[in-house]
Specification:
Blueprint: H1 7-17, H2 25-32, H3 41-53, E1 58-60, E2 68-70, E3 77-81, E4 87-90, H4 93-104, E5 115-119, H5 122-130
Parallel strand pairs: 3-5
Antiparallel strand pairs: 1-2, 3-4
Length: 131
């Protein structure tokens, strides 16, 4: 299905591209409202889904936690903090290379992948060591 470009969708994409965090729909809503005060949360969700279906952003589902969104669309590894809920990119060239080799050796047509590592982020790990 083809969707027309709208000012709302463009602003949502701009807001996502302006951060290196992996925000929730609520965060996107709060930030887009600074530019489009009358936008609804429902409009945010609908447009996030359109942007995901168009491949312009990716949705990161972390189990029971609220979905997160990422403007970086090429496959990469994420880390989900089980304490604070933050999602961050894992920059490990060796792991990415090994994953690419593994995928190339599969007897399947892999078009994309999602890998999420779960555990405490460095901030939460440090905070818990201080207690």
């Amino acid at each position: 299905m083809e969707y027309r470009r709208t000012a709302q969708r463009n602003m949502i994409l701009e807001v996502l591209q302006s951060t290196d965090t992996h925000p929730t729909a609520s965060w996107v809503y709060d930030n887009v409202r600074q530019y489009i005060p009358n936008i609804s949360l429902g409009t945010i969700y609908r447009n996030l889904n359109v942007l995901v279906s168009q491949g312009q952003i990716q949705k990161i589902s972390c189990g029971e936690a609220e979905d997160r969104y990422d403007a970086t669309t090429e496959p990469h590894i994420h880390h989900y903090c089980t304490d604070c809920g933050c999602v961050s990119d894992v920059h490990d060239e060796l792991a990415s290379e090994r994953l690419s080799i593994l995928i190339s050796e599969m007897d399947a047509d892999v078009q994309t992948y999602s890998l999420i590592c779960y555990g405490k982020c460095k901030h939460c790990e440090k905070k818990n060591k201080c207690n």
